[in-house]
Specification:
This protein is an alpha/beta fold. It has a single domain, classed as NAD(P)-binding Rossmann-like Domain (Rossmann fold), CATH 3.40.50.720. Helices cover 45% and strands 15% of the residues. It has a seven-stranded parallel beta sheet with strand order 3-2-1-4-5-6-7, with helices on both faces. α3 runs parallel beside α4.
């Protein structure tokens, strides 16, 4: 009888379309641990993956809680050797307050990187899903970059640059969180590298997911549609396109890539800085 503990484990945090698209490409013959804040989301994604022939187990996780992330690490390592981590959990500007966005998207990501960086297998790889708004934030100082990249996790939210008098709205909180994700990944790539593992970031633009459909129907909808119309691609992206980049970064063809951030937004950021989407 096959021993499940002998299997490589791929951990997916956030059971949405992008996480699923990446994990489908890299998990044949491996065990997927699928974690989400909502058990019903995890169960629905697990059924889809199981029906497609993948071996999946589910658990709940709140990435803003160290105890919860610790518990996820325990579950994952009990299944086998963790060879892959896909961190795709987060909240958007229209979903949460600045405080919640910083706690989930910035602190939560730093926590996941720290905890899984302690157990990732040699030859393993991870990918964090950031977002293109991180590329629309003006340049930070070298000191600010270093603080976001290297401040100990439990001290991160106490940084003066992240206090309410500095981060006054949800969009700014989201932008600085996503910029922080790519900086944190760059710093963590040094530590993961000492274990023989790699970690990168993908910063997608507008990708058609249930979340993006909600945004398109909400107050930000006209702005989203304008970005889609005026970017070079002239459309939104699909989770499968992000999955293709994720598979490259997680697989042997990406063995020379670590500490990098991949912006894939159809040209929206290019149009924002140098084209028709530039602020007036």
């Amino acid at each position: 009888m096959e021993n499940i503990n002998a299997k490589n484990v791929i951990v997916v945090i956030g059971a949405g379309s992008i996480g699923q698209a990446i994990v489908r490409r890299i998990s044949a013959g491996k065990h997927i641990v699928l974690a989400d804040l909502r058990q019903d989301n995890a169960d629905a994604a697990a059924k889809t993956l199981s029906d497609a022939g993948f071996e999946v187990s589910t658990t709940k996780v709140d990435v803003s809680s160290r105890a919860s992330v610790d518990a996820l690490v325990t579950v994952a390592t009990s299944r086998g050797e963790v060879s892959g981590v896909i961190h795709a959990a987060g909240v958007s500007p229209s979903q949460a307050s600045p405080e919640t966005i910083l706690k989930v998207d910035l602190y939560g990501t730093a926590l996941v990187l720290e905890e899984f960086g302690n157990v990732i297998a040699r030859g393993g790889a991870g990918v964090v899903i950031a977002s293109q708004p991180g590329h629309r934030l003006p340049a930070l100082s070298a000191e600010q970059n270093a603080l976001l990249a290297k401040t100990p996790v439990e001290e991160l939210l106490a940084l003066p640059m992240l206090q309410p008098n500095q981060v006054k709205d949800s969009l700014h909180a989201y932008q600085i969180s996503k910029r922080g994700n790519s900086l944190r990944v760059m710093a963590e790539a040094v530590r993961w590298g000492k274990r023989g593992a790699r970690i990168n970031t993908i910063s997608p633009g507008i990708i058609i997911t249930p979340l993006a459909n909600d945004e398109l129907k909400g107050p930000r909808g006209p702005g989203y549609r304008r970005m889609m119309e005026l970017c070079a691609a002239g459309r939104a992206g699909t989770p499968d396109e992000v999955g293709t980049v994720g598979a490259l970064l997680m697989g042997p063809d990406g063995a020379f890539i670590t500490g990098s951030d991949f912006l894939m937004d159809g040209g929206v950021t290019a149009a924002y800085w140098f084209g028709e989407l530039a602020p007036k």
